[in-house]
Design goal:
Layout: H1 2-5, E1 10-18, E2 23-33, E3 42-50, H2 55-58, E4 110-113, E5 117-119, E6 123-132
Antiparallel strand pairs: 1-2, 1-6, 2-3, 4-5
């Protein structure tokens, strides 16, 4: 992600399709990821528009470093990514709230895009797309 966004004006499109067929999206007009030495820190700027809700900024993910089970870079007292209900790298501040890499098994993915999508039982698919502006 760093190489794709380095020195470029990029936007991020996040989409979720619910089990009832409803499609929701959020477009972040400015998106970039820093280099490895800066722990792949997430940067969101400009406006966010869409029907999904701005969970990435409302849960203070902009400026967060990327966390994995073996690299605890989140803002929580324990390692969010080591939690058995998470198991997926992400820019965590608190352990859930805006997290698209969760496990798809019922009940294990809590608040994938809170408050709009409160549990994985509502979620059929998610994806993120990057665009150079």
């Amino acid at each position: 992600m760093h190489q794709l966004t380095k020195g470029r004006n990029s936007s991020l499109y996040v989409s979720t399709t619910l089990t009832n067929g409803t499609k929701l999206y959020e477009l972040y007009n400015q998106f970039s990821v820093s280099e490895e030495t800066n722990n792949y820190r997430l940067f969101l700027g400009g406006s966010a528009t869409g029907t999904l809700g701005d969970s990435m900024r409302s849960h203070d993910l902009s400026g967060m470093s990327f966390s994995t089970p073996d690299r605890d870079n989140d803002g929580f007292p324990r390692n969010c990514d080591a939690d058995s209900a998470i198991r997926g790298g992400w820019w965590f501040n608190w352990c859930h709230q805006a997290f698209l890499n969760g496990q798809w098994s019922p009940g294990s993915w809590y608040r994938p895009w809170y408050p709009t999508v409160s549990d994985n039982k509502q979620t059929k698919e998610t994806f993120m797309m990057l665009k150079h502006n």
